[in-house]
Amino acid sequence: MLELDIALRLLQEGSHANRFGAWRRQSLRRLPARSRRLLDLIPRTGWTVDFLDQAMAGSIDEALERVRATPAARIRKDMETWAGRGQQRAVPAWTQSLGSDRQLLLDLADTAAHAHKHIIAPYQQHTDALSGADQALRTRQAAHGGLQALLSGLNPRYIRWRPPVLELTMASGSAGDIHLAGRGLLLIPSVFGAVYPALDETAEPQPWLTYPVGLRDTDLFLPPTDTARALSTIPDSLTALLGHTRAVVLWTIAHHPGCTTTELARHAGISPASASQHATVLRTAGLSHTTRHHNTALHTVTPAGTHLLNTAG
């Protein structure tokens, strides 16, 4: 739901044409005219109306069920708060009926479901792979460089770590101090949030902050694995399907997410050239994902690869 919110904002402006131009054109063609109402409540910059903020839901279906179940009194309160937050455009007249017209709320949730189906879902496997690769990288940064390495590399232009303060530059230009008071901070990678961070300091059970999926400089070392153990745990069914070495390579990528080609070769007990070749085949088949950062390739398993390993196991 959070990625849908960010993507709908991205649709309304023309930045990053090379990266998002094709997606933007396809998405705008797919969205029906009724989506205008959803865009009214999720503007290009500024606040999203609170009852649509279901970032912590476990799935898009759960998020939309929460929207549909929003009490009328909560809707009226949220709309009043939203209207008073200094929106840069007039509050649309149709929103005055949201707190009293239940069907209007249900139609709005259906529109959000339709939008997710056509502008997020077709790319879900790719975005999951990117997020998985990013998570692997952040884990390595935190493990080897601590908090300094992790926070400094999230989004250096707009997220700056000046101990003990994390400074953010928001698209809305909002300013002020936020005190976590021991609640922690949930970091959420975003494929569509390519520039500015999004923040909700009132979220439960803890505040969250988005940062763009991406890779930063890293030459962190992963400890070697026991290759014999890897060879002994590869299921025969997977070996029969992929071949012994390629099955080992897929297994290795899954157990060492974010490994470089050199690390992959060492863990699998093969040459770097062979590791690169097998990783290419797995990537072409949609079982692994390779993210390039300068001259380094970082390998992670895709949801399809994980499913294959789980089924074979």
Characteristics:
single chain; 313 residues; mainly alpha; three-stranded mixed beta sheet; three-stranded antiparallel beta sheet; 13 helices; 11% strand; globular
Q: What does this protein look like?
A:
There is one protein chain. This protein is mainly alpha-helical. Helix content is 50%, strand content 11%. It has 13 helices and 8 strands. The chain has helices at 2-11, 17-30, 35-41, 60-68, 72-83, 102-119, 124-152, 227-233, 236-242, 244-255, 261-268, 272-284, 303-312; strands at 159-162, 165-168, 186-190, 199-200, 208-212, 259-260, 288-293, 296-301. The strands form 3 sheets. It has a 3-stranded mixed sheet with strand order 3-5-4. Strands 6-8-7 form a 3-stranded antiparallel sheet, with helices on both faces. A hairpin with a 2-residue loop joins β7 (288-293) and β8 (296-301). α10 (244-255) packs across α12 (272-284) and α11 (261-268) packs across α12 (272-284). The longest helix has 29 residues, at 124-152. The chain starts with a helix and ends with a helix.
